[in-house]
Specification:
The complex is a heterodimer of chains A (about 290) and B (about 160).
Chain A: H1 3-17, H2 33-44, H3 46-50, E1 63-66, E2 69-72, H4 89-98, H5 113-116, H6 121-132, E3 145-146, H7 155-163, H8 177-187, H9 193-196, H10 239-247, H11 259-267, H12 274-285
Antiparallel strand pairs in A: 1-2, 2-3
Helix pairs in contact in A: 2-6, 4-6, 8-12, 10-12
Chain B: H1 12-29, H2 37-60, H3 68-87, H4 103-106, H5 108-131, H6 134-155
Helix pairs in contact in B: 2-3, 2-6, 3-5, 5-6
Classes of the chains: A mainly alpha (about 290), B mainly alpha (about 160).
């Protein structure tokens, strides 16, 4: 058999065997920054929070109710006045990795810079390129409505000292490339731990209990744990079950995930490549080591 | 006024019989977390749809032998369930342990369109299944699943047990 025929056969059979292979979805073109930026945009699930229901794409305004008050997500369209169109690359990197606005003020951690700080410079710049290609929308950011003392933005400097680990992602040399890819997605752009980990009294993720689940998740949801601890139902699922749950939302009992995870599947994990989803699963299988 | 409960009226046997009956009774009532009436009915309907999806899902995942006729049968059950959904959500039927969100009645048109869509996509799955093309079946199954998760995203708040 000629190598090319063999290759074609391998591809064909993997198409038949793999649970879902999307006909209309190609793996991202890494050479095209905007296209790869779109893929990174999906990894981050940016539109879940930055597009309000019935609002214009990425113009913000979505209300997020938390124990500290109501946050309103900002406009991240490239409008120069009300969006982020005027930002330099460094402004963008600083926002994503330090949680600081171009004027130096602190962002609140409802914006998960705590995870995005693990993203590579390459990915962040590709994301910025992609955002710059979107339709600008003129829409002023609505101020947050927070209770005292959380309405004091300057306090976030203290918050960061206690809760923010700004070290970038460092691959674990003892682990496979696939595992490291999964670790990067889960802890960086995918920001899974933001909802799937418990938080302390001032809203910082308890890093020693990362991905252990959160009884008091967003909108009062109980967010299940993702570690392979026995009490987490995902520990009983096969790799196919896990893949299905993040690709199309189906759990092994035939139920379909909804709530906040429904948005994640719709805007993020459902749009990722099969390889990346498998990397996420490989990492979750062994995330505590 | 004080009511004294006279235990002598009950023999031990009668009490244990009552206990057993009580256990059986609560066992029945408390399936679906003690749901009653229309809430119980719709939870049962959803469970049936879930069971249908589970059977098809197992085949698509390769966990069960692939049988396109079984898939068509399950798709038909889901398609038949569609028109019952809106009837099982009368105004403000939110009593516990319902997981339904009030948004259902605020956005009734969207909600009811989703139940139509469920039947449409299930119908298509039935047709595709009869053709027997595994890849097409898988794609259509995912489309059907999207309706499920779309509705669960906007209109259900899952109570983890």
């Amino acid at each position: 058999m000629k190598p090319s025929t063999l290759k074609a056969l391998t591809i064909l059979s993997s198409m038949l065997i793999s649970p879902i292979t999307w006909a209309d979805k190609d793996t991202p073109e890494v050479s095209d920054p905007v296209k790869s930026g779109e893929y990174i945009f999906n990894m981050g699930g940016c539109s879940s929070c930055h597009t309000a229901k019935e609002g214009k794409a990425l113009a913000g305004g979505l209300a997020m109710e938390t124990p500290f008050g109501v946050f309103y997500t900002p406009n991240i369209t490239p409008d120069k006045e009300t969006g982020i169109g005027d930002w330099s690359d460094e402004d963008f990197i600083r926002a994503m990795t330090k949680g600081e606005a171009p004027d130096g003020s602190h962002y609140y951690p409802t914006f998960p810079y705590t995870s995005y700080s693990k993203m590579s410079r390459h990915d962040l710049l590709a994301l910025k390129d992609y955002l710059n290609q979107q339709t600008p929308v003129v829409s002023e950011n609505r101020p947050h409505d927070l209770s005292f003392p959380f309405n004091l933005r300057s306090l976030m400097g203290f918050w960061k000292m206690v809760n923010f680990d700004e070290t970038p992602f460092v691959p674990d040399k003892d682990k496979s490339q696939v595992w490291n890819r999964g670790a990067y997605i889960v802890n960086g752009p995918g920001h899974c731990g933001e909802c799937h980990s418990p938080r302390n009294l001032i809203g910082g993720v308890k890093s020693e209990e990362a991905l252990a689940g959160n009884l008091e998740g967003p909108e009062g949801e109980k967010v299940p744990g993702l570690t392979m601890a026995k009490e987490n139902r995902v520990s009983q699922w096969s790799d196919e079950d896990l893949l299905f749950s993040i690709q199309i939302g189906m759990t092994p009992d035939g139920d379909f995930l909804g709530g906040s995870m429904g948005h994640v599947i719709e805007n993020s994990t459902g749009k990722l490549s099969q390889e990346d989803l498998k990397a996420i699963i490989e990492y979750l299988r062994d995330s505590e080591s | 006024m004080k009511t004294t409960f006279n235990t002598h009226l009950f023999s031990k046997q009668a009490l244990s019989a009552l206990f057993i009956v009580g256990t059986i009774f609560t066992g029945t009532v408390f399936s679906h977390g003690g749901a009653t009436g229309v809430v119980k009915e719709r939870m049962e309907l959803m469970k049936e749809v879930g069971d249908n999806m589970k059977q098809v899902g197992a085949m698509v995942k390769g966990q069960a032998p692939f049988d396109s006729m079984t898939i068509a049968k399950n798709a038909k059950s889901i398609s038949d369930a569609g028109p019952h959904i809106t009837k099982l959500f009368p105004n403000d039927s939110l009593h516990k342990p319902s997981e339904a969100l009030p948004a259902i009645w605020e956005e009734w048109d969207q909600f009811s369109a989703l139940s139509d869509k469920l039947s449409d996509e299930a119908n298509k799955l039935q047709e595709v299944a009869q053709g027997g093309d595994k890849r097409a079946i898988t794609m259509q199954f995912a489309k059907l699943g999207k309706v499920c998760s779309g509705c669960h995203t906007d209109y259900r708040k899952k109570e983890e047990k």
